[in-house]
Amino acid sequence: MTKVTFFLLITLVAAGQNRDYPVKPVPFTAVHVTDAFWAPRIETNRKVTIPFAFKKDEETGRVDNFQRAAKALRGEPFENHKPPGYPFDDTDLYKVIEGASYALSVQPDPQLDAYLDKLIAIIAAAQEKDGYLYTTRTIDAAHPHPWAGKQRWELETVDSHELYNLGHLYEAAVAHYQATGKRTLLNVAVKTANLLDQTFGPGKQVIWPGHQITEMGLAKLYRATGEDRFLNLAKFLLDSRGPDTVKLPEGVRGHNGTYNQSYMKVVDQTEAVGHAVRATYMYSGMADVAALTGDEAYVRAIDRIWENTVNRKLYITAGGIGATGSGEAFGKDYELPNMTAYNETCAAIGNDYWNHRLFLLHADARYIDVMERTLYNGLISGVALDGKTFFYPNPLESNGQHARSEWFGVACCPSNMTRFLASVPGYVYGQRGDELWVNLYVAGRGEIKLDNGRKVTITQETRYPWNGAVKLFVAPDPSGPLTIHVRIPGWAREEPIPGGLYHYSDQNSERVTLTVNGGGVPLKLDQGYVSIKRTWKAGDVISLNLPMPVRRVKANDQVLADRGRVAIQRGPIVFAAEWVDNPGNKVRNLMLQSAAQLTPEFKPDLLNGVVVVKGRAFAMAYDANGKIARSDQEFTAIPYYAWANRGRGQMLVWIPETESAAKPAPRATFATSAKVTSSPGHRGMALSAIQDGEEPQSSSEPGSSFDWWPKKGTTEWVEYAFGKVVAVADSEVYWFDDTGRGEVRVPASWRVLYKDGDEWKPVQDASGYGVAKDQYNRVVFKPVATTALRLELTAQPNFSVGIQEWKVK
Ligand SMILES: [Zn+2]
Cα of 341 to ligand 1 centre, how many Å? Predict the structure, then answer.
């Protein structure tokens, strides 16, 4: 089908479909971004990340899984029948195909187009005759992955991810169809959806996706094909979710009901709970189905859940949802720890899908406020500036234990990033009849077709997010009356985030101004917009000035982790102090006085061009008498999203403002100044955590320990080399033990050795080797004069071993 007939079809389908979002998004294909912030990122995504992710999909067997499944279907021999790594690995290929299709929509690339054709043929060949598509089972149906279950669908509500995979297939198929006009992947998708429709629904089997996205995918498939069955099925999946609606096979236990939001009917839910990616995908699916069916109960539910999220569960980086690593889940109200924040990159993406949809439902800028904050902070922090390494969690504080990785065993985040970044220009505008919403400020040109058939070209000139001066050149064709809703961001209206979780703690006297052709427009706000209704003609210009002073943000006092601390914000950007820019390569010892002046400075050569915030701060340290000493020093903060591009080290978003919140550097001791080494650990943890002088609160406290997980039952060592001969006779160890969430326990046994020439010898007359939790285990021994000391630890069988802190005297 040619593109022309495709668009005609869409128009005809649209005529039959009366209902959809009240506000329509202006597709990214109509918005050409030329700014210095997003355009290079989108280009890096196209030229680096997408090919890189395809290469990883090939290298890690994700493409081969489809080829093996196809061989199994054809009865051809093949060697490795082992089930793939995870039952959801198929989605990583689908997501990158989606991202690549978006890239193709704006930039022809015959080579990429041909590569997609090849991949789609490989996918199509792995589809079973009746439409079933799930490589994990097809490769060897008699011995599938344990999460897949013996029969199709029987473990879907637990961990099989059969429907999750299809949801991502639908997103990819519609993207590819719209980009190329080719039905190849769409046909595969429709065939699977037909199978679902035959199997599930009223009077048929009941099911709901263990991991949501199928609902959003089916809504897209419905819009692309006009098949009501697919929309009805999306609604059925949502309405079926709930406790006890699906019976599990004998002896199988499901997840608890909050983890996958199945603890009550979706329309009755009021709080953001459980796995944050699942949750935001579900809320997005509910918004889609509500828009397409007019179901008000869905809207009421997601509105309530949104209020709960922004008032109690949102990080200042907003991507920032999902406080706990255990269950990758939302925490309790106000539970927003910084160093151990989970904030999965995919949850940031899901949060933006959800908030954008709420805007399309309500035409209210507060959803764009959350979306924009997420976009510029907790979302793009997920990918390095070079486009080749990624964060899965996005913490707000680091002691050097965090670093981006090339890929993950569970690779959802990198592939998700490819599809999201490619579609960013689609979040700039919205339209309805004779109305146009300007949501994001990004230099470039929008060629917008209003749904009444008129065209409007709108050109933005701005250096946003570094400068808040924006010029919008409006040229409607034909000229005539048009209402332009100009968003005044919450951050410029004394509201860092909608709701009561954060507030500015400083004063600002600079005011927002708005003019049309030089004439002032009163800032009369309606749902966060100034609405300008007039007869526009080519040459008309709107000038918006959003002053961007450096601001201080404080959290609601109920957020314990942020008490006595302040975050720095300028425009939509949240800042972080990172080790490289600050004296002594430390930031966790800083205290920023509320009176300290902070000034912005644009650095064109730093981190691809960023504004940094400079000032003076106190470095805090314990002196020889155990008293806290302050020294005044230079302070620099960079945009949070750009941290971890220059190696491992400390990072801090919430900076202490009071001495009681500060973490003074420890007094230099043998231990803190020793060179520390260990038998090989895993996970690239920072060994320095055991000598940083920070007092642990408990053995289970995460974030500032070192362990040897996943090695189990082994004997390990850690060593302090003093660089000179010292006399020691006293050692204290605080064990790490994550009972309840991990596999690290106090050791079965341990001892202290000292270096005598080239030999390691046990110390004499040791007073005892304790393994108590939540306290130091002290051992005194016959004094030795030595250059190095070792702890030798033997782990309990089936467990790992780890250390919070090790002191030596
Ligand atoms: Zn992810």
Answer: 14
In angstroms, what CA-CA distances link 553 with 326, 343, 585, 641?
A: 28, 20, 25, 17
328 carries an active-site annotation:
yes
In terms of average pLDDT, the best of 392-401, 549-558, 697-706 is 549-558
Cα(391) to ligand 1 centroid in Å equals 9
Dihedral (Cα; 770, 776, 779, 785), 10-degree rounding: 140
Q: How many angstroms does the Cα of residue 392 sit away from the middle of ligand 1?
A: 6
Are the C-beta atoms of 751 and 789 separated by less than 8 Å?
no
User: Alpha-carbon distance 456 to 447, whole Å?
Assistant: 6
User: Which are the contacts of 111, defined by CB distance < 8 A and separation ≥ 6?
Assistant: none
Compute the distance between CA of residue 536 and CA of residue 478 in angstroms, rounded to an integer.
9
Residue 7 confidence (pLDDT) above 50? no
DSSP letter string, 119-181: HHHHHHHTS-TTS---HHHHT-TTS--GGG-SSTTTTTTTT--HHHHHHHHHHHHHHHHHHH-
Q: What are the tens digits of pLDDT across the range 552-605?
A: 999 999 999 999 999 999 999 999 999 999 998 999 999 999 888 999 999 999
The runs of H, that is alpha helices, within 409-523 are 412-422
Let me know: does 93 contact 118? Beta carbons within 8 Å: no
Decide: 637 and 650 in contact? Cβ < 8 Å.
Answer: no
**3-state class (DSSP) for residue 526:** strand
**C-alpha–C-alpha distance, residues 343 and 94, integer Å:** 23
SS3 track for 16-34: HCCCCCCCEECCHHHEEEC
The residue to which tokens 């041909």 are assigned: 114
Average pLDDT, integer, range 705-722: 92
Using pLDDT thresholds of 50, 70 and 90, give the confidence band for residue 446.
very high
C-beta of residue 298 within 8 angstroms of C-beta of residue 267:
yes
b/e 303-322 (16+ beta carbons within 10 angstroms → b): eebbebbbbbbbbbbbbbbb
User: What is the 92 CA–ligand 1 centroid distance (Å)?
Assistant: 10
Separation of 350 CA from ligand 1 center, angstroms? 10
pLDDT surpassing 80 at residue 686: no
Mean pLDDT of 781-805: 95
Q: Catalytic site residue 694?
A: no
Q: What is the pLDDT of residue 687?
A: 84
Give the whole-angstrom CA distance, residue 31 versus residue 155: 42
- At residue 533's C-alpha, the angle toward residues 527 and 538, to 5°, is 125
In whole angstroms, how far apart are CA 499 and each of 314, 338, 486, 495, 496? Answer: 10, 20, 21, 8, 9
Radius of gyration of the chain (CA): 28
- Helix, strand or coil, per DSSP, at residue 64: helix
Residues whose CB falls within 8 Å of the CB of residue 52, separated by 6 or more in sequence, listed in order: 387, 388
Catalytic residue among 412, 413, 578, 719: 412
- The C-alpha atoms of residue 94 and residue 66 are separated, in whole angstroms, by 12
Q: Which helix (H) or strand (E) holds 197?
A: helix 184-199
328, 657, 719, 805: the active-site residue: 328
| Mean pLDDT within 95-102 | 96
Report, as an integer, the average pLDDT of 274-301: 96
In DSSP notation, 72-133 reads: HHHT---S--PPPSSTTTHHHHHHHHHHHHHHHHHS--HHHHHHHHHHHHHHHHTS-TTS--
Whole-number Å distance, alpha carbon 408 to ligand 1 midpoint, is 9
Q: Which residue's structure tokens are 């022309």?
A: 4
> If you measure from the C-alpha of residue 345 to the centroid of ligand 1, how many angstroms do you get, rounded to a whole number?
6
3: CB partners within 8 A, 6+ apart? 181
* Alpha-carbon span 686 to 704, nearest angstrom: 8
